[in-house]
Backbone:
């Protein structure tokens, strides 16, 4: 039996595969027919809350001719100690793909190791690849190819930021990260990204990171499961994205935020509700890009041969 095509992180796919998914997402959005899930079922396991991911995947499954079963981990035997491995084996007998949102990336890897159907990362403590593929789709719809363009991440170096590093590795954008020294990216990640040719620079000063950027991105200062919220809010106070900071970016710079947002905290209302903000296009594009991810996982889009 061939290995299932898991969608775990952007850096696990080749540039060609990511490009094919993005092309397919654009085609589906433009009205091309997609039936990748016809007669099939998607199981979606959530250990944490979700609005966009849950609804967009459920609608994606339905629009692709299939059906989604949404599972709150607390209501599953998983919550009473059944192993991830057994859960993976059992669900693989019923459904054709599984999404997982979890606090521990290791659980995602364990699910994928034991599932015989594709597993999709619907956010972990380490990364959020579906979001960043939707963000790339959004940027390219508005401004053309992301390769060679400067993306400035301002704020906590979190799961969403980590997937931007993976995007820099595969899709050629130049990533500027502005964050407090206490919340800086892991040196191993930076070293691996740079060894693969990614252009990633870390700045302590938001102004230095944003100057000339084509896209400014932020996210909540306190992610789901973060234990040190008060400390993070204190450290991140100088990293709020406001109109003055946006003025330093390129004249046609866009603003993105994966949502949910906290106006007045990581971003001012003036910026997120202003003309450069494309946050609701990003949210919409989760649907289109996830339909394409499901099609890739289920073999409707060609994969590169395994190395
Ligand atoms: N951006 C995002 O993943 O939103 P949800 O937490 O609502 O799914
Ligand atoms: N970094 C945020 C993203 C939410 C979609 C979190 O993990 O809570």
Residues:
């Amino acid at each position: 039996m061939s290995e299932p095509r898991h969608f775990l992180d952007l850096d696990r796919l080749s540039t060609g595969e990511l490009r094919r998914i993005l092309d397919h997402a654009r085609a589906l959005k433009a009205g091309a027919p997609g039936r990748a899930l016809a007669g099939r079922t998607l199981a979606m396991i959530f250990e944490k809350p979700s609005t966009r991911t849950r609804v967009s995947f459920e609608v994606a499954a339905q629009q692709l001719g299939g059906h989604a079963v949404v599972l709150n981990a607390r209501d599953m035997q998983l919550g009473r100690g059944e192993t991830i491995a057994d859960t993976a084996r059992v669900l693989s007998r019923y459904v054709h793909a599984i999404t997982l949102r979890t606090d521990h990336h290791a659980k995602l890897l364990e699910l994928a190791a034991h599932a015989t159907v594709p597993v999709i990362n619907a956010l972990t403590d380490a990364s959020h690849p579906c979001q960043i593929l939707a963000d790339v789709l959004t940027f390219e719809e508005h401004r053309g190819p992301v390769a060679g363009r400067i993306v400035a991440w301002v704020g906590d170096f979190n799961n969403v930021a980590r997937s931007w590093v993976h995007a820099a590795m595969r899709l050629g954008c130049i990533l500027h990260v502005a964050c407090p020294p206490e919340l800086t990216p892991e040196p191993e990640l930076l070293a691996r990204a740079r060894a693969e040719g990614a252009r990633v620079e870390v700045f302590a000063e938001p102004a230095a990171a944003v100057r000339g950027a084509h896209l400014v991105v932020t996210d909540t200062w306190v992610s789901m499961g973060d234990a040190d919220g008060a400390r993070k809010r204190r450290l991140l106070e100088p990293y709020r994205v406001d109109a003055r900071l946006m003025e330093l970016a390129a004249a046609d710079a866009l603003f993105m935020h994966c949502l949910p947002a906290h106006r007045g905290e990581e971003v001012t209302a003036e910026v997120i509700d202003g003309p450069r903000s494309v946050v609701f296009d990003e949210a919409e594009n989760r649907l289109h890009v996830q339909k394409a991810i499901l099609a890739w996982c289920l073999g409707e889009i060609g994969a590169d041969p395994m190395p």
In short: The mean pLDDT is 97.
